[in-house]
Specification:
Chains: A alpha+beta (301), B mainly alpha (215), C alpha/beta (809), D alpha+beta (196)
Number of strands of chain C: 33
Distance between the termini of chain B: 26 Å
Radius of gyration of chain B: 20 Å
Shape of chain C: globular
Largest interface: C-D, 168 and 118 residues
CATH topology of chain B: Fumarate Reductase Cytochrome B subunit
CATH architecture of chain B: Up-down Bundle
Oligomer: heterotetramer
CATH superfamily of the domain at 6-235 and 622-631 in chain C: Dimethylsulfoxide Reductase, domain 2
């Protein structure tokens, strides 16, 4: 399923459709992160750094296991650890691998003003092309999950590519391959959904009545999904949004406003021009000068 | 026009300092607007080439905006008193149809600026404040990371709206300047003919003539 | 491991205790998740900390560090009291019915035979009664008051759930929930696996904790079956191999032992080791000890080893005592050692009591460090801020630091915890001038040999006569050495059933240890590895991962010792008639003529089960022992003793001022006893451990690992943090009687205070991993805090339970 | 004067127009075609190895520069799990997944070094010098302190004043030859990392 320029579904800041005649076997892919199997070992973080040749700063311990503390230009995925005491008083360590969710309807792409800096491939992967990135950071505002980061090194936006280079040659992403417990799996979106459904049923028999799949409809579904023990409360997982949507502000800003405003500007200019042509310039006529002269003399009497 | 500009009895409309500020503002505006509009709509992305491409537009836009602000503050302060709305401004505005149709003889006598100019002035004041504040919030390089994402999103919209209004105002302003002959040369050379002043800003004309009387 | 990693997927219940598999062995731990997902298995984690393993558990039970025997004893009491044991199994495959000598006794925590002056037991009373036939007496009805079953029941009847809660701080309801789950695996078709690591080993009672776990598994009939077993996770990639190869003070290869100095001749040495069966028709496989020994000596000294010189018996050094690490550093500290070679090991960081370590090393005349990395040990003399406050100008030691290759730069085999010998291949040249350990050892040896040949010196014979049959003597290849330890025929080897038939021609590689001979006709460097490189080639390099049975027995992947056997004691997975207890997970069975199945039978292949031969062929009894006899230094049954640094000061089994508090036979030297802290000054129980992001003291040199966990920290519970006024991210000072460290505090709900006999005890987690060398942020070596106390049997230091005080820094 | 200023004015306001015409003439920056990053392992040499950390003994694949040709000098640049390995099935833990930084760690030792008594620094020496010095020190100590017989006449043939600590991650073959050499010298103070 090698990907190339013709396998693009969406492209940022592009007003004409991407080449879209192809409609074959390239399936929608997805990564399924089963938080109930995740031990927070950070192997995915390591594999991500290793494969993508990323080395963040050697940071500090701030009193938690999380490190690096947040996503950055060189940390495209981080584990977020939350200690939660359930109704029974038992501790649950809810650990979530954070990173790009690869939304079907990507807010970053919507917000991006640089043509081709963000693309969505035919398989659903949302990828940043840093050579086109202008570093404006609009993708950050556009992302409902607060994922993209501008690198301090080159002022360009970075995030998880879902290892588009590996997927393009038929491999699984590096984090998926490395995951020791099998908490991260990869396949067609359809398969991941059915696997998740099976796992959710299992979890329900193991005492997690509210287990469920996180594939939020507000962004058209995602190509990175979570199985949660507490799907009724995604916020327990270090603030995973319950109902993520591209912010209405961003929709306004990057949606209808754009053509309307552009239209208004064009209309104003056209009106000025037409009016000029129709009525002619406002010129000062010799009689105006004479009138002025007369009045001047009057005043100075 | 040219022969009128060096007549012995021309009236000074714009001080040299103000003319310089005005044109500096114009230059900054063109830079900021072009780069801003390039980021606003993909159809205008080519405008980013003015400042050297998308990346340079993003880098320079805020600085150019700040520069525009710096030129604009003294300029606006200078024009503050002359832009206070007067009773005749309402009448002038109500007769906007006559303005557009060049039936200037029907319009009331007005001071140095007409109501349209004054409104533009206030719109600019508002827009510039909004642009400055929202611009800082979305200035990715230095500030954006320190604001909550909701504030950044709001600022993004506010910046776009204010810029739109400002650009729209400037379109009107430029159209008017091209339309009203003698305006541009006045901002270049600073002076207008007495007839120009008499025709467009009669109250101001009289005031100027009276003050000349003492010479 | 008795079993292997993939086999864990066959378990119905997993007990992770004294280990943290999810965190320290994540890729092996995956098989627990497989068992949970596909067999509906349950996971119990018992740990002082709510670890990453605990986060995955169906049941987490907190426990005070160092009280595992009390817990396991409590479980055994529950099983015996509720008769939740595998009756067929214990009756036939264990010593349940054997009768113990009348003079065996147990009083207030001490077994019979204790010599308080020497801190040692005379173990002669810890034995079975013998009949007139020389065999052990047994009472199959289990009525005899001194049969092992009754002694066991009596011993653990004291370990009630209430006592467990009192000693361990484990809530009674959680403990009983665990007992219930465990008891269910006494069914012949249900198996529990136990996964443990240094959380059990690193105690003054470590060996006995592990024994208690094994006994628990025997009661349940879970040893030798698929999905069962006692599975030591093992922390280093080839520590299994290097132990198999006997790189310890008192061992030769393949768990042969060095002679004691009293054993002045070969016969005296051999007799107690080649034990005759204690019950009729038992295999007692160690009867073949002589074959293993002679073949080893032929591998080492070649033609110099002859029957006349008892195969170079005198070449072997004789022990007066064990020279384990703790003993060696004690001698070093008293100035009795001059030289030391550290090969890929960082003892300044890894051994307890850093101050003592530094002082001891400073007394060496010379130190040689071979390592791929810049270790702390190689620079013990160098000043590194507050992390290594020494004055180089006062340290006389000459130090050599020799760069070695790492895994990627050499060929060879490593042995996994599942006993698989797996070959690996070189991918690049070592950096700079680095050389392989093999090359360095060969070069040093050849220098010494040449010096002894040229100049003579003290007893040069074993040196100059050492067999060195390598094509390029300075560069023995991994292949040559592997073939040497696997073994070959020096002369034609005959079939014992038909002495005219040659089963192995001279010069050929042996197919396995069954072909070893004690007449000098075979050579084999490590008998348990015999057959790893046979005439069929290098079996360790096999890569066929097919699993026809579907139960994870990939028999053609690499090679497992012994004899490519994947599950040890697998004869015990079948009943006395040779039928599998659990046909769904059949390993082997008896087909009327031979034993066979998806594993190599751990039994005599053609032995009819009707003959009554027991499945534990390495013991002279043929069965597994609940009663350890003389096998342990500190008692035939595991008994709870407090850690040497106890937060209580007494043993709650007996009460204040009564009974034996600590392990009476543990390894401790007088000076180190003085360096033990008391609970009044050091009230908090500390335990050291690894984090998943790091490996020992290596990965602080690894940039990605340093990014993932950059800075030293200690973990404390919220209650303790509140008590000392610390919040997450603050710096704290942790001190013990031996030193202090400063680190960032991770304040967590995952460590809860425990109520022990009415008082509150706080646990402090001290991850190791940081030091003064590496790319991670510099930190203190965690062993600054740890006590110089060792287990009675293995001398393993007590890193897992000691006393500290935590304060705001 | 006015003419000039007018021209300037035109210049300024016309810039936008100019920009647009330049764009129309094709001077707009090429919008790069969106393609994925090239797959970096395409023809790299794959070598099978075993993770050197814990005893799960995960299979790993090491990818090295070059195809093994004589003139190509290998250097490992990527490591991932061996999917054929029955235990890890391609997975690796965080340590295993970062092995590449172990191979290329700045903490790797590159040449033999020597620290003289009371010195506060290392000095580089040759292998020959290191071997000679160490062998001489060993022999001197052994000859001086070797115990052939105890005071009560037992043959013990042991050397207690020098000890060896063997590794925990070296191969069987390295361990085997180390044991063979160490015992031939009569050393008893010999241990490995099984316990710590």
């Amino acid at each position: 399923m090698a990907l190339q320029s013709l396998d693009i579904r969406r492209r940022s800041a592009t007003t004409t459709p991407a080449p879209m005649v192809r409609d074959g076997a390239t399936p929608d892919v997805a990564k399924l992160i089963d938080t109930t199997k995740c031990i927070g070992c950070k192997a995915c973080q390591a594999a991500c750094m290793e494969w993508n040749d990323l080395r963040d700063d050697i940071g500090k311990n701030t009193g938690v296991y999380d490190n690096p503390l947040d996503l950055s230009g060189q940390s495209w995925t981080v584990m977020r650890f939350a200690e939660y005491e359930n109704e029974k008083g038992d501790l649950e360590w809810l650990i979530r691998k954070d990173g790009c969710m690869h939304c079907e309807d990507p807010g970053c792409l919507k917000a991006c003003p640089a043509p081709g800096a963000i693309v969505q491939y035919a398989n659903g992967i949302v990828d940043f092309h840093e050579e086109n990135c202008i570093g404006c950071g609009y993708c950050i505002a556009g992302c409902p999950f607060n994922v993209p980061r501008i690198s301090k090194k080159d002022q360009k936006a970075y995030k998880c590519t879902l290892c588009s280079d590996r997927v393009a040659v038929g491999l699984e992403p590096a984090c998926v391959k490395t995951c020791p417990t099998g908490a991260i799996t990869f396949g067609t979106k359809e398969r991941m959904q059915s696997d998740a459904a099976e796992r959710v049923e299992q979890l329900k028999t193991r005492g997690f009545a509210n287990a469920g799949l996180y594939d939020p409809a507000g962004v058209g579904g995602t190509h990175v999904m979570y199985v949660l023990h507490h799907a009724d409360r995604p916020g327990l997982y270090s603030g995973l949004p319950a109902d993520p949507k591209v912010s209405p502000l961003v929709r306004v800003w990057k949606g209808a406003t754009k053509p309307l405003a552009l239209g208004a500007l064009v209309l104003a200019a056209v009106f000025g021009f037409v009016n000029y042509v129709r009525t002619g310039p406002k010129e000062v006529e010799p009689e105006d000068e004479l009138a002025a002269q007369r009045e001047k003399e009057q005043i100075h009497g | 026009m040219a022969d009128k500009s060096h007549g012995p009895d021309l009236i000074l409309r714009h001080e040299p300092r103000d003319r310089v500020l005005h044109w500096l503002i114009v230059i900054a505006f063109v830079g900021a607007a072009a780069s801003g509009m390039a980021l606003f709509h993909p159809a205008l992305y080519w405008l980013s080439n003015l400042l050297g491409g998308g990346r340079w537009s993003v880098i320079l836009h805020p600085f150019v905006g700040i520069a525009m602000m710096l030129f604009w503050v003294p300029f606006a302060r200078m024009a503050w008193s002359e832009n206070r709305l007067q009773p005749y401004d309402r009448r002038w505005l109500s007769q906007i149809g006559d303005v557009v149709a060049n039936r200037d003889d029907r319009l009331p006598d007005i001071g140095k600026y007409n109501a349209g100019q004054k409104l533009l002035y206030y719109v600019m004041v508002a827009c510039m404040i909004v642009l400055l504040l929202s611009g800082i919030v979305i200035w990715r390089r230095y500030f954006a990371a320190s604001f909550p994402i909701g504030v950044v999103r709001l600022a993004g919209v506010a910046h776009a709206v204010a810029a739109f209004v400002l650009v729209l105002g400037i379109v009107v302003h430029v159209s008017a300047a091209v339309w009203v002959k003698g305006s541009i040369s006045s901002m270049m050379g600073g002076k207008v003919t007495p007839g120009w002043a008499w025709k467009h800003h009669r109250l101001w004309f009289r005031e100027r003539i009276r003050s000349q009387g003492t010479r | 491991m008795t079993n292997h990693w993939v086999d864990i997927k066959n378990a119905d219940l997993v007990l992770i205790m004294g280990g943290n598999a999810a965190e320290c062995h994540p890729c092996g731990y995956k098989w627990v998740e497989e068992a949970k997902a596909h067999r509906k298995a349950k996971l119990i984690v018992v740990d002082p900390r709510f670890t990453r393993s605990a986060a995955m558990a169906d049941l987490y039970v907190p426990i005070r560090a160092g009280t595992d025997i009390a817990f396991l004893g409590g479980v055994m009491n529950y099983l015996l009291a509720n008769d939740a044991i595998h009756h067929d199994y214990v009756a036939n495959y264990t010593d349940f019915s054997f009768i113990v000598r009348e003079d065996f006794a147990f009083n207030e925590g001490l077994y019979s035979g204790y010599d308080p002056a020497k801190h040692k037991y005379d173990k002669s009373s810890w034995d079975y009664e013998r009949g007139e036939d020389g065999f052990v007496k047994a009472d199959p009805t289990l009525q005899h008051p001194r049969c092992v079953y009754n002694l066991l029941k009596q011993h653990y009847s004291r370990y009630t759930p209430e006592l467990v809660e009192k000693i361990c701080g484990s809530p009674k309801d959680k403990f009983l929930e665990a007992c219930k789950l465990i008891a269910a695996t006494s069914s012949p078709t249900s198996a529990m696996t136990i996964m443990y690591a240094l959380g059990w080993t690193q105690h003054s009672i470590g060996s006995q904790i592990i024994r208690a776990g094994a006994m628990l598994q025997l009661l349940l009939g879970n040893i030798g079956v698929a999905g069962g077993g006692m599975n030591a996770l093992r922390g280093h990639s080839n520590i299994q191999g290097l132990t198999d190869l006997g790189l310890m003070s008192n061992l030769l290869t393949g768990y042969l032992t060095l002679p004691n100095q009293a054993e002045q001749d070969y016969a005296t040495y051999l007799t107690p080791r080649a034990q005759k069966p204690l019950r009729p028709n038992q295999m007692s496989y160690w009867q073949n000890y002589g074959r293993f020994y002679v073949s080893l000596m032929k591998a080492w000294w070649g033609n110099a080893a002859t029957a006349e010189n008892s195969w170079c018996y005198d070449y072997l050094p004789k022990l007066d005592k064990t020279y384990d690490m703790l003993q060696v550093y004690e001698l070093m500290g008293s100035g009795k050692m001059n030289g030391y070679i550290c090969q890929g090991f960082n003892p300044i960081a890894s051994s307890p009591h850093k101050a003592k370590m530094t002082a001891s090393f400073s007394k060496l005349k010379f130190l040689v460090v071979m390592d791929p990395l810049a270790t702390e040990t190689a620079e013990f003399w160098n000043h590194y801020d507050e992390y290594n406050e020494v004055d180089p100008s006062t340290i006389e030691t000459e130090v050599f630091r020799l760069p070695t290759s790492c895994f990627a730069e050499e060929d060879g085999a490593l042995v996994s915890s599942g006993r698989w010998l797996q070959w690996h291949w070189k991918g690049a040249e070592p950096p700079g001038e680095a050389k392989t350990d093999i090359e360095i050892m060969a070069a040093l040896y050849m220098r010494l040999r040449d010096l002894y040949k040229a100049e003579g010196g003290a007893f040069p014979d074993p040196i100059v006569n050492l067999a060195w049959p390598y094509a390029r003597p300075g560069h023995p290849t991994a292949e040559e050495l592997a073939k040497e330890y696997s073994g070959k025929a020096l002369a034609d080897v005959m079939d014992p059933k038909d002495p005219t038939k040659v089963i192995r021609k001279a010069g050929e590689q042996l197919a396995g240890f069954a072909e070893l001979r004690d007449d000098g006709s075979t050579s084999c460097g490590c008998w348990i590895y015999s057959g790893a490189w046979s005439e069929a080639g290098n079996l360790m390099a096999r890569r066929d991962n097919s699993d026809p049975s579907g139960i994870g027995q990939t028999r053609n992947w690499a090679w497992a010792w012994p004899a490519n056997r994947r599950v040890l004691y697998n004869r015990a997975s079948c009943d006395v008639n040779g039928k599998p207890f659990n046909p769904a997970l059949k390993l082997i069975s008896w087909n009327g003529k031979t034993w066979g199945g998806v594993d190599v039978p751990d039994f005599k292949a053609d032995e009819d089960p009707a003959g009554g031969m027991g499945p534990f062929i390495m013991t002279p009894e043929g069965v597994a022992r609940f009663f350890a006899r003389g096998g342990m230094s500190d008692g035939p049954f595991p008994e709870h003793y407090e850690p040497f640094e106890t937060p209580l000061g007494y043993n709650p089994l007996w009460g204040k001022g009564k009974g034996q508090v600590q392990n009476p036979a543990a390894r401790i030297f007088d000076d180190d006893r003085k360096a033990l802290g008391q609970a009044d000054a050091f009230p908090h129980v500390a335990t050291t451990y690894r984090l998943t992001e790091h490996f020992h003291f290596w990965t602080k040199h690894v940039r990605i690992a340093a990014i993932l966990q950059p800075q030293q920290f200690v973990e404390i519970g919220e209650a303790l943090a509140k008590e000392i006024g610390v919040k997450a991210g603050d710096n704290v000072k942790v001190s013990s009687k031996r030193g202090q460290i400063k680190a960032v505090a991770v304040v967590t709900k995952r460590i809860k205070p425990l109520t022990i006999d009415g008082r509150t005890v706080h646990t402090v987690g001290v991850p190791i991993h940081w030091g003064f060398k590496g790319v991670a942020r510099a930190g203190y070596l965690a062993n600054t805090l740890t006590p110089f106390v060792g287990d009675a049997n293995t001398q393993t230091p007590e890193f897992k339970a000691f006393l500290v005080k935590v304060e705001r820094a | 004067m006015v003419e000039v200023t007018r021209r300037e004015f035109l210049k300024v306001t016309g810039m936008t127009l100019a920009g647009s015409s330049v764009a129309m003439l094709g001077f707009a920056p090429e919008t790069a075609i969106a393609e994925v990053r090239q797959f970096k392992l395409a023809r790299a040499t794959e070598t099978r190895n075993t993770c050197p950390y814990c005893s799960v003994a995960c299979g790993i694949l090491m990818y090295g520069l070059g195809d093994g040709a004589k003139n190509a000098k290998s250097s490992i640049f990527h490591i991932e799990g061996d999917p054929d390995h029955p235990v890890n099935r391609g997975t690796l833990c965080p340590k295993g997944a970062s092995l590449i930084d172990f191979i290329h760690s700045e903490g790797r030792l590159l040449y033999p070094e020597y620290r003289a008594p009371r010195s506060d620094k290392w000095q580089r020496i040759s292998w020959e010098e290191a071997y000679d010095k160490i062998a001489r020190l060993l022999k001197k100590d052994r000859d001086a302190n070797f115990v052939a017989k105890t005071a009560d006449g037992l043959t013990v043939n042991r050397w207690l004043t020098t000890g060896v600590l063997a590794a925990s991650a070296s191969s069987n073959e390295a361990g085997y030859i180390t044991h063979k050499v160490v015992r031939s010298l009569g050393i008893l103070a010999f241990d490995n990392q099984a316990r710590v």
